[in-house]
Design a protein that fits this description.
Blueprint lengths: L2 H6 L14 H5 L8 E4 L5 H12 L3 E6 L2 H10 L6 E5 L5 H14 L5 E4 L10 E2 L3 E2 H16 L1 H7 L2 E6 L22 H23 L4 E7 L13 H6 L16 H13 L9 E4 L2 E2 L22 H15 L6
Parallel strand pairs: 1-2, 1-4, 2-3, 4-7, 7-8, 8-9
Antiparallel strand pairs: 5-6, 9-10
Length: 329
Amino acid sequence: MSEELAETLQHPIGSGFGHGSTAREVIDGIDLSGKSAIVTGGYSGLGLETVRALASAGAAVTVPARRLEHAKEVLAAAGLADVVTVEEMDLADQASVKAFAQRYLAGHGSLDILINNAAIMASPEQRVGPGWEAQFATNHLGHYTLVNSLWPALAASGDARVISLSSTGHKLSPIRFDDVNFDGGYDKWRAYGQAKTANALLAVELDRLGKDSGVRAFAVHPGGIMTELQRHLPKEEMVAAGWMDAEGNVREGFKTPEQGAATSVWAATSPALSGKGGVYCEDCDIANPTDKESPLARYQGVDAHAIDKADATKLWDLSAKLTGINAFA
């Protein structure tokens, strides 16, 4: 093992699970009774399956939702209405995020699991807040503010985990520190890539800042999954990308939502990760750094810019400046 890998722990640990594992399988035998969890976007796709798995293990789960009544209906239909609390929150609205966090802190002494799952992908150009690009603002800045606002509860746990959902989309763009808001011209995929890199770097810096308080953070690539995340993409674009054929049949290799939720659930609960953190995970294990010579380099492993410690600190500082919040200042 190289000194660099030994330092970052960015290499598989032989979890015993893999690409086809489900959330139900990775949480089997784990008791979360008495534990609290928050899952953003926990009422659709893999977020819903994540909530289902955590609740099945006994966790008290809160789902903050932009579409409050819709979320309640979905969770009720899934048989989770009696075990999940739904609260209003819009990640694109900083005031809404802070208000949710304050309500949560008022009613809970601690928080054991925070899964930053919600996201938008390749959306048309949109500005939110003070002119922020919407994908960066929603996927990253919203979750950054949520983490910092909930910090007292995370620290009070003494053994909390924060899961930041990234994706192989991170390979599309590093952080564009000279133009994070794409003021120089919008590209929906580069904007998504930057946001997913930001999600990965959030885990790197949060783990560094939080580990002495017992808070560990992990970035997760859930895998390719057909969910509401694709709502902004026309079928023709997905066919051209090779995600499905002309008849709409999804290509082999895509995961079901329950398989997609597995890595988040594993990272949030696995005893094998005790004492570890600040790493990028895929297929229910810690990922390898990207092998640039591999024909699968676009789809496997983590690129160096998504686990760069200096960039992680730089992004945290920029986020603090933009949002006006920093629990570690």
